[in-house]
Every structure is written in structure tokens, then in C-alpha cells.
Amino acid sequence: MKVEIVTVRDGEEAVVEFDYARRSEDERPMVLDVLLQAQATTMPDLAFRYGCRARNCGVCTIDVNGRPIIACRARAREGDRLSPMATLPAVADLVVRRDGIARQMRGRLQTAQGNDLNVEAPEEYHELTSCIECYACLNKCPMHMRNFEGGLPGDMDPADRPDPAEGYRWGNPFSLLKLQMIRLDPLTAESGREAALDNAIDLGLDACVGCPGCKCGVGIDLKGLVVKALVDAAGDRLPSPAEKALKRAS
Amino acid sequence: MKIEIEWQDYDVIVVGSGGSGGQAARAAADAGANVLSVSKDPVGASDTKISEGIATVRGSGAEDDTEDVLSENLKMAGGDLPVRAITDAFAKDSTSAYDRYRTQGLRPTIKEDGSGPEARPLPFGGHTRRRSVGHKNSGIAFGHANWNAIVQGNRVDYIEDAWFLDLVTEDVSNGSGPKKKIVGGLIYDAARGVLIAVRAPSVVIAAGGLSSLYFPNTDTMRGNTGDGYAIAARAGADLVDMEQVQFLPFCLASPPAYEGLCAGEPVMASYLGVLRDKNGKIILDSVFLRTRAECAAAILRAVEDGRGSPNGGAYLDMTANKELPLSGPYFQRFGETCLPSSYNTARQALGKKAAKFEEPWEVRPGAHYHMGGIRADANGASAGGEGDGDAAHGIAGLFTAGGAMGGVFGANRLGSTSLTEGAVFGGRSGQAAAAHARETWGRNRDAAFQPAIDQVNRRFGQKGTLAAATLKLELQQEAWKNIGPVRTAEKLDRMDGLIAECTARLDEVAIPAYGMWNQAFIEFQELRNLLDCAKAVADAARERDGSLGGHVRFDRKTISAFSKPYSTVVRLNDDGWQVARLERERTPMKRLISYKVEDTKRKIQLKWLRMLPKGVKDRKLLARYQAIMGKGAVEKVSAPAISIGSAEAATGESTRA
Ligand SMILES: Cc1cc2nc3c(=O)[nH]c(=O)nc-3n(C[C@H](O)[C@H](O)[C@H](O)COP(=O)(O)OP(=O)(O)OC[C@H]3O[C@@H](n4cnc5c(N)ncnc54)[C@H](O)[C@@H]3O)c2cc1C
Ligand code: SF4
Ligand code: SF4
Ligand code: FES
User: Fold this and answer.
1) Does the Cβ of B53 fall within 6 Å of ligand 1?
2) Is there a contact between A129 and B137 if contact means CB atoms under 8 Å apart?
3) How far is it, in rounded angstroms, from Cα B387 to Cα B19?
4) How far is B515 from chain A (nearest CA, A)?
5) Which residue ranges does chain B devote to CATH 3.50.50.60?
6) How far is CA B150 from CA A134, B29, B75, B143, B156, in A?
7) What pTM, to 2 d.p., does this model score?
8) Per-residue pLDDT reduced to its tens digit, A44-74
């Protein structure tokens, strides 16, 4: 099975063709199996992230044919093109720099808490803890794209890109999910709930108004459980869809 | 090539951002220290995050679960190798350390009376009491809590994609205290392509285990390359019980993409589960009362005798539980919920019939956890000297916690204790590291860093014909064969030869001359650490001249629980690797005997149960399941949580729109 792997070394991009040798006739390898075989055979220095091989750690996300997939649990197919996630700056081969996302949450995770730890969390809370932080949801998120002048990091001159070490200015579905978790946590005091909403608005929640919505790599209902919940809570602190359309038109 | 170097100052460096690192960083910061958390994986992505998420919380399931009962349980299960002060600390702090996790967002199911977290229905993996608390979304829920602990800030700075390379120490010349002290560490920040020299009086090593020493694949993170052990040993620290590697017996043997992933635990086999060889012959009964090591050894004996399954394992046959008309449905429910994340993996890999327990599962052992590690006291401070040792004979300023720490579990780890281990000793080591930093800090010691920096600069741009990744794979395969789940004197000798050969080839590895994410350098560094670990494991394994716990010798007898217990200790000094024994205190004979009697009694009872006529057996089991799980257990529909593994709408799983 032939695939193309986009590699970046010391700033130089190249496309390498790799021919995967199936280990049994009926093997349907995952994308990660292909990368592991490439590393074990012809490309020993290939850089890519992986950890658990079981869709738990969330680090192996790459783009296949331009769409983010979780490499350890997505089947590879003839002719696939494997490249680094386009939504974050590439560092080497299939590795992207991830930390601009988490860093934007510094100072936003504090919650004033009640004393009683023995309170049952609502079901929605647990649905959100199934997020593995794979960042597949950054794909086509207009809020996240604000960090890169409305486009992708690859469209910008590296020198003009925002510094991930500072944490990105604008948010994304994952960061909103973390904030919504704080709001759903029964231990969070009212002030903590309000602060989380303020933070969501500060990160650009207005981008969600009228947005067709985000897709989660593991199937969390982001639109319903996260975006709608936050947008509803923000109420008229956000422009209405009509106002937004008007603004865009002008 | 000289790569750019940055200098930074902190009170405490914490290496690793898994459960133990997260808790250590938080505890040190809360005690007033300025902390740098460094990890080679993205923050929080660790064994902790991918675990089953079941934690030992004393008193959560049984009222008579005292500190003494738990401490003794740990010590005896560990073949008396654990240090009593350390198991006492574990027992003392297990509840409060777990509660600290809860303040960071971990939310268990709460008991109906609101008194605390709900424990699982059965005592897990060798526990004498019910004290294992499970969590929705398994380890991922712990991952979120750790992430919160670090990312929030509040005196914790963090860098990810950054490999901690080596400790920097200085000799101390004052009389009776430690002979060496920590002055900092050197880090390769791959994402920015720079070296960071951090001046710090305290370093907590929370870098996890060494399962990646072995191939075929394991259920652990790829980053388990034993960096922490190797780094500590190179700085002169003692490592204890290094031969004690825990192999999970029931990892998947196929298909390749699932190979090595955990499919279940002995407890899951329930009352009637057995292990069979390829001819259908029973090679181990009463599986659910056995330790992981016993099950793994049974499988490997069959494999060595040529009676193994096609993919080098055996068959875990749980069908007898399922066949019974009344109790069968209860077993099904038990099997699904006992270890939900493993069950899910098995279901995906093995298909529907296996998921209904209507056919046996092909399983084989896989490296999972390392009981041995950096020798420490009950606060995680590096320890040395005779017997249990003390910090006065260790390296001042060096601390450890979690998988990296030794002395907690000895020869065998009870189920679900490791997440708690991280919380307990993460908390303790973090506080101790902060206190140490307050006491000691002073002048500039930059010169001490130079040798380590020079060494790195020499490697970048090294000319050669070999690839570290390829050597690594060779080493992993040989380690599995020779210092893996089955060992003999001959295998150990062969391993020594291989280690020497591979070490000599390190200078022939090609490493390009650029700083930014140099994968070849990363592989090289991990290979170097794996080699040191392989040596430590091999030396300890030779010193341990009989089977005990995770150390299985096919050419020697089993070491009796009644003989005088000892731990192995290895250290690296100017004369090379040294190995010795440390005396351990044996549990009083009376307690040992009563423990053995209990164990035998349980196994005999089970044998009886198996021999009963089907109908009687079924009714007896029904009563047992109902007592454990409640009468309505089979009607209760499971919560529709989005399980990692469910297919619905998971856009990351298909490569076509
Ligand atoms: C599949 C699976 C299921 C499990 N289930 C359970 C369970 O249910 N209950 C239980 O108690 N235990 C369980 N365990 C065991 C438990 O998860 C681990 O033992 C525990 O989480 C180890 O925690 P840790 O913080 O010590 O190390 P880890 O969580 O492994 O973290 C290690 C950290 O160190 C970093 N690191 C390593 N080397 C370096 C370096 N050189 N430089 C910088 N950073 C470095 C890594 O990036 C990572 O952040 C399970 C393990 C696995 C694999
Ligand atoms: S919300 Fe979903 S897609 Fe986004 S990071 Fe979490 S798991 Fe991945
Ligand atoms: S709904 Fe909001 S978070 Fe989701 S993609 Fe649109 S802008 Fe991004
Ligand atoms: S390797 Fe962990 S999610 Fe893919």
C-alpha cells in the first residue's frame, strides 16, 4: 500500500512515498502502523507523535488528505497523503507545536470551590472529560483562525506568527470545553462559573454565533454541550446572528 | 555543533507531567517554591492519562480498612521487599492524596449516603479489602485533573516537548551528610531547538517507567524509556529492585494495531475463568485469584514448550461463566464494567463473539509497570546506605515519585495502587523538594554544567552510519527475549554481551547538525537511557537467584515467602555498575502463615464450586453476583457516556469525509 508522507527537516519540506508491507493479507493497518513501519525500515529519523496506540493520549493527530485524524485509530488507505495538522505550526515532519493552545488557559482555570467534595457531578460533566485533547476540533474553527489573520499558520510568514509560548490570543473548541467543565462542576462556586464565562467571551466566543459548529475527533457533542451552553449563558453579551451578518456586510 | 543555550533559575524542577509529576509540581508550588515542570510529551499525556483510572482509596469500600491493614497488604503482596515506612506512608496518605486530585476536578461516583467515593464491587488485584475506586472515562479523567494542576500557573511554569537529559551535581565534603548534591539539570527543548540549563537545588524525577525497554509492544506510552532511572543512576543514585518488571498477562496478541494493549486483568476472569494452551488443555485455573506474574508465567511456560497460541500466547477462556443461564448475564455485565477501557479495546480487536465471552480470547503478556526504581525514603528523597536506607546517604536535593520511585511495591504491585502512589509520593516529594530548596541555595555553580553541555554539543552533528531508532528496536527485541518475562542465567549472559555491543555502537549513530526537533538526537538519547536500564535490570536479575514476583527464572526455584527477604540494589560509580543486596524485614511468621492459609482456602473453595453440578453452581453464583452487584444489575442500562472507542460521530477515525 503506497502513501505519501510530508516531511519537514530543518525547515525544508519534502514529500516521500512510502510503500507499506502488509503483515498479513487481510491486515487493515491504522495510519500509525504505517508511520511505525516507515520508522522501523526506510525512515528511521521520521518525526511523529504517538503515545498509547489506543486513542487515549490524544497526541498522534495528523492530517490525512487534509483532514485531522487520530492516527492510531484511523485506517490507512492506498494513496493517502499524510501531513502535519495544518491548524498548528509545523515543527518537524508530522510534529506540530501544540502548546499555544494549553498556554492560553493559564490563569483561567482557577475556581473558587465549595468544601464538600462528595457531590455527584452531572452526566454532561463526564461527557466532557472524555476529551483526549487531540485538537482535531481546531479544523476550520473561525475563532482559532483569528490567531493567524483568519487563515492557517502555514499561510503566514513564520516571523509574523504569534508566539505559542505566550499562549494564543483567541480560543478554540477545546478551550471552551475546559471552561464549560468548570461551569458544570458542582464544586465550582458561582463566582468561578461567571469567571469561566467571562473567559470564554474574552477568548472570542462571539465567533461561535452563526458558526456552523465544530466537530470533535472522538465524538463529543461540542455544538450542544459546549458552544450552545456557553452562547446561551452569554445571552446579549454577544452580538445576535443578525447583528453579526450586518457587521460582516458593512 | 554548539546549540544555543539558555539559563534559567527555579527552586524545584519536576521531570514528568503525569500523575506523580503533576501532583509534585502542585505540592511544591503550594509550599511556596517556584517550579518548572518539564515533560517530553505534551503536558499531561502520560501513562496516567491512558490508565484504567482505578485508584486505591483506603476505607472507600470496607469499614475495617485501617492504615495497618493496607500497609501490611502492600508489604506482603510485594514479597516483603517494600520498605515499611514507605507502605505506611502510602496507607496514611491514600485518602487525602486522592482528595487533592478531587480539588483539581476528578469526580468519582459518590456513595448513595454521600459519605465518599464508591468502591468497585470486588477487591481488585490482590487487595484484601474493597478499596478500588473507578472513574468515568478512565485515566483521561485523571489526565484532565493533572493538566489543570500544571497549566493553571500559580508558581508552576511548564515546558513540553522537552527532554530532560541529565542531572548536574556537585560533590559535598562535609562529614556525615550526603556526598553529592543537586545543582540543576540540562534540558533539550526540541520544539524551540535550544538547550536549557536550569539552576535548581531540588529536582523531582517523576518520569515514569521503562516498559518501552521491551518489544513486542506494550500497553504503555512510547515514552516509557526509563529516562528517570538512567538519569538518576548516572548521577550516582541507588536503584532498587530493578529486576522487578511487571508484565500484564492478558494483553492482546493480534491484530497488529492492537497488539500489546491490555485486554483485562485476572479479576475479570471471574469465578470460572481459566487459561488454556493451544490444545485446549487448562494451564491455570482459579485465574481470578492469581497474581499477574503467576498468569504471565503460566502463559510463557506453554509458549516455551511449544504449546502456545499462533501469536505467541495462550487462551483466556471465560466461557464457563457466560454459559450459565441465571448467573451468565450478571457475569456479562461484570466483564463489561470491571475494566471498561480494556473491555472496549478487546471488543474492538476481537469481535462480537469474544465480547459476549462466547469464545476464548487469545492473550499474551506485555510489559506494563516497573516496581523497582530510584531508591528513596518515605518522602521520596533519594536514599542510600544499609537496609531501608536514609536520605543522609542519598543525593541531596534529588527526589522521586510514582513509577520512577522504588521501594513501594517490591516484587508485586496490587491492582489500582499506582495512581495513588503518584498522588501520595507526588505530594510528599513536592513538599520535601520545596523545603529543601528553602534551606539550601546560594552561589552560582555554572561551571558544574559544562561537562554535560559539552557532551550534548559533541553529539549534535555526529557522523555515522547507524540509526538510533533501528538500534533501539533491536535492543527492545533482545530485552524481551533475555530480560523479559522469562529469564535464565544463559539469557542474562547473552544480554550483557548485547548491551556491550550496542553501547559500543553509540558513537556510530548519525545525528544531523541542527537544533530544531532533532529526532535522531531524541532517539539517541532514549537509546542511551534504555541501555543503562537494560544493564541495571540484567545485573539485578542475576543477583536475584530465584523466581520472585515479577522476576521469573525458568532455571531456578521459586524463592519461599518464609526465607529471609532481600532487595537488590544497583548503582553506577567510577568502577562501573555495582550490585548488592539489602536486608528486608520479614512479616511475622504467624501473619505469613495465616495469609497463606486464607489464600489456599479461597482456592480450594473455588475448586469445589467449579465441580458442583451446573444448576447448583449457577444458583450459587447468581447469589454471589447479586450480593456484589445488586439484584438489578443486569437491567440497569449503562450510562450513555461517550466512551473512547464508540464509533458514533468520531470524525477522527475515518480518513474520508
Ligand atoms: C493501560 C494502563 C492502565 C493502567 N491502569 C491503572 C489503573 O487502573 N490504576 C492504577 O493505579 N494504575 C494503572 N496503571 C499504571 C499507572 O497508570 C502508572 O503507573 C502511573 O500513571 C505512572 O505515573 P507517573 O506519573 O509516575 O508516570 P507517567 O504517568 O508515565 O508520566 C511520565 C511523565 O514523564 C515524562 N518523561 C519521561 N521521561 C522524560 C524525560 N527524559 N524528560 C522529560 N519528561 C520525561 C513523560 O512525558 C510523562 O509526562 C495503568 C497503566 C497503563 C499503561
Ligand atoms: S474536544 Fe474532541 S476534538 Fe477537541 S481536543 Fe477534545 S477530544 Fe479532541
Ligand atoms: S462554534 Fe465556535 S468553537 Fe466551534 S468551530 Fe465555530 S467558532 Fe470555533
Ligand atoms: S497514540 Fe495515543 S491517541 Fe493515538
Assistant:
1) yes
2) yes
3) 29
4) 8
5) 5-244+371-444
6) 18, 10, 32, 11, 6
7) 0.96
8) 999 999 999 999 999 999 999 999 999 999 9
